[in-house]
Amino acid sequence: xxxxxxxxxxxxxxxxxxxxxxxxxxxxxxxxxxxxxxxxxxxxxxxxxxxxxxxxxxxxxxxxxxxxxxxxxxxxxxxxxxxxxxxxxxxxxxxxxxxxxxxxxxxxxxxxxxxxxxxxxxxxxxxxxxxxxxxxxxxxxxxxxxxxxxxxxxxxxxxxxxxxxxxxxxxxxxxxxxxxxxxxxxxxxxxxxxxxxxxxxxxxxxxxxxxxxxxxxxxxxxxxxxxxxxxxxxxxxxxxxxxxxxxxxxxxxxxxxxxxxxxxxxxxxxxxxxxxxxxxxxxxxxxxxxxx
Amino acid sequence: xxxxxxxxxxxxxxxxxxxxxxxxxxxxxxxxxxxxxxxxxxxxxxxxxxxxxxxxxxxxxxxxxxxxxxxxxxxxxxxxxxxxxxxxxxxxxxxxxxxxxxxxxxxxxxxxxxxxxxxxxxxxxxxxxxxxxxxxxxxxxxxxxxxxxxxxxxxxxxxxxxxxxxxxxxxxxxxxxxxxxxxxxxxxxxxxxxxxxxxxxxxxxxxxxxxxxxxxxxxxxxxxxxxxxxxxxxxxxxxxxxxxxxxxxxxxxxxxxxxxxxxxxxxxxxxxxxxxxxxxxxxxxxxxxxxxxxxxxxxxxxxxxxxxxxxxxxxxxxxxxxxxxxxxxxxxxxxxxxxxxxxxxxxxxxxxxxxxxxxxxxxxxxxxxxxxxxxxxxxxxxxxxxxxxxxxxxxxxxxxxxxxxxxxxxxxxxxxxxxxxxxxxxxxxxxxxxxxxxxxxxxxxxxxxxxxxxxxxxxxxxxxxxxxxxxxxxxxxxxxxxxxxxxxxxxxxxxxxxxxxxxxxxxxxxxxxxxxxxxxxxxxxxxxxxxxxxxxxxxxxxxxxxxxxxxxxxxxxxxxxxxxxxxxxxxxxxxxxxxxxx
Amino acid sequence: xxxxxxxxxxxxxxxxxxxxxxxxxxxxxxxxxxxxxxxxxxxxxxxxxxxxxxxxxxxxxxxxxxxxxxxxxxxxxxxxxxxxxxxxxxxxxxxxxxxxxxxxxxxxxxxxxxxxxxxxxxxxxxxxxxxxxxxxxxxxxxxxxxxxxxxxxxxxxxxxxxxxxxxxxxxxxxxxxxxxxxxxxxxxxxxxxxxxxxxxxxxxxxxxxxxxxxxxxxxxxxxxxxxxxxxxxxxxxxxxxxxxxxxxxxxxxxxxxxxxxxxxxxxxxxxxxxxxxxxxxxxxxxxxxxxxxxxxxxxxxxxxxxxxxxxxxxxxxxxxxxxxxxxx
Lengths: 292, 582, 328
Known about the structure:
The complex is a heterotrimer.
Chain A: E1 4-7, H1 18-31, E2 34-37, H2 49-52, H3 54-71, E3 74-77, H4 80-95, H5 98-105, E4 119-121, H6 122-130, H7 132-137, E5 147-150, H8 154-158, H9 173-181, E6 184-186, H10 204-220, E7 225-228, H11 231-239, H12 241-248, E8 256-258, H13 259-267, H14 284-290
Parallel strand pairs in A: 1-2, 1-3, 3-4, 5-6, 5-7, 7-8
Helix pairs in contact in A: 1-13, 3-4, 6-9, 10-12
Chain B: E1 2-9, H1 13-25, E2 31-35, E3 51-52, H2 64-74, H3 81-101, E4 115-116, E5 126-127, H4 133-148, E6 151-154, E7 156-164, E8 167-175, E9 181-191, H5 212-219, E10 224-225, E11 230-237, H6 246-250, E12 254-256, H7 279-291, E13 302-305, H8 311-317, H9 319-329, E14 338-347, E15 351-352, E16 358-360, E17 366-372, E18 377-378, H10 391-412, H11 421-435, H12 443-457, E19 461-462, H13 464-484, H14 496-520, E20 529-530, H15 538-541, E21 543-549, E22 556-562, H16 572-575
Parallel strand pairs in B: 1-2, 1-9, 2-6, 9-17, 15-18, 19-20
Antiparallel strand pairs in B: 3-5, 4-5, 7-8, 8-9, 10-21, 11-14, 12-13, 13-14, 16-17, 21-22
Chain C: E1 2-9, E2 18-25, H1 32-43, E3 62-65, E4 68-71, H2 77-80, E5 86-90, E6 97-99, E7 102-103, H3 106-114, H4 135-139, H5 142-145, H6 152-156, H7 158-162, H8 169-179, H9 187-194, H10 208-212, H11 219-231, H12 240-255, H13 260-268, H14 275-290, H15 306-322
Parallel strand pairs in C: 1-5
Antiparallel strand pairs in C: 1-2, 3-4, 3-5, 6-7
């Protein structure tokens, strides 16, 4: 049976990282995964709604989940932060007291959260539902020789405490995907740590130092590029890389790929279709290595 | 040479409370606090059950005299009644003080401090913070040390108490991080060094409870008092020995043998109070059950069963006990009983003091410049057996009292005159000699042998023959330590082996003092049970025992002194010694 | 069973670290601390680490085991070896090493001191009896009060690693503990204090503190609670961090999705009023433009459900106001 998901795009994939939306929908087509976009969904709050009030985060995201439930589909996210935030709300309401569900539902006009679906990141869908073997079969262009460092994102690894996909300090799903695509996984210290994005609008020094530490550790471990399942990590690691370089006082120049971009390359999609020219740090070194 | 008006040794409940009292009352005084662990790591932090005081929040008819009587009866009449009066009369006030400092006590529905029943107490008077009472209190006190900026010598170990010309003048201290040796001079030294559970092989106490303060005191020739009274807590988790709080029985837990019986009903001295009988009696009955072959599966333990309390009560009232079972044994006490056996828990004896915490010599006169409070002291409020909920209380009452007393005392006392040279040289020699030990015995092996010998020969049951054998074995082990010890670490930086070698000296000294005291008390009283003298003998032994090194420090001498019975004047019916039954 | 234990050794503050591997006979039910004790007692007395209560309450024995800080008396060998064949033991992070697994915690304690970690009742009339504290008032302090100050959260804190001024998760958990105590009389002052740089807004929400806390303090959640209190204050000094949160709610309420260009202008430039903020956005904007990444406002598409979302946020905010909470 063909896989079908309620696709939650998130804000960034429709704005500054449009290439994420393009590459996700691109690989979904190539893999035969059907995506039904949740046109009426809203921003998850990226973890800050909870800081205003947890009930705000709960209700807004209960509504998002209810939209997927109405389609009878599992919700697919493509952002570590969206996953951690919406996934946490789903865990809390689905496995918690009935009274919490009732309370939230009092405020959802026209929708009803039932706790009947799952919230799953694209990465988990590929590994768990689609399967690495099946993914391997679809590879048109092996990524042999490309050394990839994963950058998971905090919310993906640690945002949810009830539904856990993998050990937050020894994850391997990204590396498993790299393997299926023929690429080499580079393990480095910062891959499970914070990119610094949440601080980027005000504590810039701290934010960019964080990004710098982890990028450096990836470079020192020999990575050709970083691959991330989170567009917010992408923003701090790619769009702000010039500032990061300034703060840590050295050149980095390491390309940052969205996960579906890397997969797209292996599936034989055109770099342009994947938006690889839209990055701040040029991805040409990666392309050169693959298409020399 | 460093100097302070007041030097406090030990940062647990008694030491921290004393430091806070001085900072509050005499902010101008220069106070130093020295501790071999960070104060917040002290063993007080592990105290679970609570702290008794007649706040009357639950039982309005409770009163200090009832608390005093329970304490004296629990002590098997060996407690000094003047000290017990101070303890129980001050109790409500010191609790309120702590509450005002921010301690998070558990509360009644109306917001007042909650109180619960405890073994040996005739009313519900134990104030608590779930089952982490020590943690709740110590964390607030240490936060207040930060607030007052008390100078803390963090991870420093005291090598010697400086006692010359009949007075205490300071200490010789060793910095664990660097290996530096310093003499610290002070107008007053307060020992709040805690207990010695590590003298035995199964104990609820932390690794640091090695009786250092008692050893340092004894090394000067000053006496220790009532050292034969070692409290075995009935419910140590088997096999590790960590404590399952008495609060668990306070909340209604059952003790069950392999027949499924609540065996406490089968003994005349416990069939009324059952599981809430005092610790000495309960511990003996557990051992009796085990010896009669009624341990669980024939093993050396019985079951502590809380299943009938129900999930909600277990989670809200005794969460820590549940967590211990799950972490250490994989047993959730909601579903299954916990295996328990007695574990060494508390030292009733210690450094003899007046009710104002002044340390007394063999002649019962205060030693100028020297104070003690908390578990290391013997005031004595616990006599032959301490009631649960009275130890935190002792630490806070007498810690505060020591702080107040010392604050006033040092204003009148000049800084003692002291030549540090010889002390520094001697300390350097000691450290060097230990670092140069090149025998074949590992510290751990000697320490384990000592702990096994003490447990075997001077445990819950003891007799003349076993004690004598214990004394001989300790002597042999001391020789082995002197002649055959070997260290792997010969460096100055954070040398834990050197620390262990120094602490082992303390364990030897304390062990010998316990044995010597136990030998001379030919009766059974409280925690001291002599198989060869099974009855209490008030005519001969209603008195404290004193034990100390002889003047040339080649042997141990013992002596006795009278028990204060002053509350007999207030209430002769209850305070005149009678048979102790529950 | 025989277990291989790889330990980071360092003879002194200045020495170079190196790894040493021991083989230890132990069982799955042993704690990591049991294993360290066995090494020290039976094989190598020079190994240094802290330990005391061996019962998860004194907080002495935190170290990094297999890559993250744990209380070694709490974690079992069997659990640690589920995913690997060897135990890797290192000192805690973010604090200098004194020797082997012993770290210098001075900074940790100094940071705790910075938040005034005690309940202040100075301006209250001290009653003769206890202050009243209802069980529910105490209950909300419970998670924070569980803290044993072991340092595990600080060891793994991403912000502490790069920001010397950040007081750390342990200090902020304690800050919530004292600030939310009904007996404390400095709530307002504390809110202003924790709102400063080095306080709550310097947390990057990496979840490491929650993840490694051995006693359920969940410092990140406590930090969120302080933020909630601050965000309800109308009088408190405005900042980019506060605007960040408030603008998120505002824009989602308007459009469902975040219009990133509007967000940047409102938050970073304070709607054009903060010239430094404007200046900081110019290079970013230029490079985004050049790469076709600029989220132009005219390209932004609001959610098709935006009317519903607006209603939802309005009723939720009304509900919160009804509960006595000030809506920012």
